[in-house]
Amino acid sequence: MPFTRITGSYVTHPLDAPERTADWEDFILTCNPDGSRTAMTLSRFPGNSIVRQVMQTVEADFTPRDGFARLYADGRYAGSVVRQVTGGEVTSVVLGPDGAPIDVSAFPFEATREVLGYHPTAAEGWKLMKLDRSVPGVQTIELLTTSLTWNGGTMGHGRKVEMPVEYLGEEDMHVPAGTFACHRFLWRTGDIDGDLDIWVTRKDALMVRMNGYAKGHAYVLARYEETVFPDTNEFGDY
After folding, report:
1. What is the pLDDT of residues 115-168, one digit of tens each?
2. Cys bridge to 43: 25, 60, 64, 69, which one at CB 3.0-4.6 A?
């Protein structure tokens, strides 16, 4: 099967000052030969207070498969987490920053309705793909996080949270990277991050724009390049 690679980046800016942009995240998203998708991201908070490196994979229907996240906070390595979904559970492996013994735990996990969170922007829309878009009104997503803070500034097994989300329909979104046909959602995270207005592409659920009203910032797709590699040998048969 063909293999698709999407590369791009995001900027962030205050909602009331779109001219004041700062680099936010770089990503590579691959649509793999088996239909699954993998997102590799590097997120950087302004001032380098948090630097996060993530690789996560979902099945063709966006069911979580596995993931890895590494965190640097306040200039120091804060640990890593590795996860894999097998059957009715997710195994979580935490690698501490100080050489402590590896911490392994397993949690019950219903992959048909629960999702995994790692905090990158590019794949934020993947968490919303288990919602039924034919149902009006508010629905609930069940999320296993990696961090107990709004900004993902800690690393561990995380916790399960439930949050309401409303699907608002299809809408074209214009951003510096281009114009994209999107699904729009309103995600009510409560005390974690307030209301998030989210636009994701209809094909790969790639984040296009997110307005965070509680913190007063937007996260915007600034660069998008797609390459499709055919399932033929570029150098012939040898």
Report:
1. 998 989 999 999 999 899 998 899 999 988 887 666 677 888 888 888 899 999
2. 25
